[in-house]
Amino acid sequence: VPGPGQCFIRYQVVDKDGKPLKEPQFKTVVGPVIVTKNPCPYASYMLVLEAVDCSELNCLADVIVFSTDDNRPDSNKISGSDLDGDHYFVRQHLQLSRKVEPLDYASLAKTTSVDPKPKTYYNIIKHCYLLLGATNYGEIYNLHATVVDKNLEKCPQRTCQKVAIELANMFSIANEYNLNLK
Questions:
Q1: In this predicted model, what pLDDT tens digit does every residue of 128-141 receive, in sequence order?
Q2: Higher model confidence: residue 53 or residue 93?
C-alpha cells in the first residue's frame, strides 16, 4: 500500500481512438508524477507524488490510490478531496517550478455551515450569499478565472491572490454542496 507522498496508478491501455485494445493490457505508472483535481483553481492543488508499484493492488484498473498513512491524506491536500467521485489529472515528466502550501479545508468545514436541505428562505439566501450569489460551482470557477487573469493584487503567483484563495475555498464548498444534493 502506498505510503505518505506516494500513490498507485494503474490504467488500461487504449488505441489511438481511445478504445480498449482487443487483448486488454494494463500499465502501472512508476516514478514522479504531478496529480491534480480537475478543474484546478489553486496552485497548491497540484501535488508531486511518487507513483509506486504495489503488486497487491494490481487487481485494480483505471484508478489512483492515495496513501492514508499521514495526519492529512494526500488526496485531501488537493482541494479538500474526499474521494466521492472526484476526477484527477496525472502527468509524468513535468516539474513544478515551486511548491504552494495546500489550503486547510478542515477549518473551512468548522466555519462554514451548509445545510444540505435548506428548509427556510433565510437559509437559501444565506447559502447563496455565502457563495457570492453564485448558483453553482461553475460560476464561482469562472469568477476565480477572471480574478486570476486580471491579477489586480499583482501577485507573482496569480492563484495565490487573497481573493483567488477565497474563491478557491468557495469553489470547494460549492462543489461538495452540489455533490451532497444528489
A1: 556 544 556 777 77
A2: 53
DSSP string, 110-179: HH----SS--SHHHHHHHHHHTTT-SSHHHHHHHHHHHHHH-TT--SSGGGSHHHHHHHHHHHHHHHHHH
- The domain spans of the chain are 6-92, 105-181
Cβ atoms within 10 Å of 168's Cβ, excluding its own: 27
- The three-class DSSP label of residue 18 is coil
Taking the model in full, what pTM does it have? 0.57
Q: Residues near 120 by Cβ (< 8 Å), separated by ≥ 6?
A: none
Instruction: Give the number of other Cβ atoms within 10 Å of residue 71's Cβ.
Output: 6
Query: So what's the pLDDT on residue 139?
Result: 75
Phi, psi angle pair for 109, to nearest 5°: -60, -35
Which three three-digit cell numbers place residue 29? 505508472
Closest CA to 30 of 13, 47, 55: 55
**Rounded CA separation 181/175 (Å):** 10
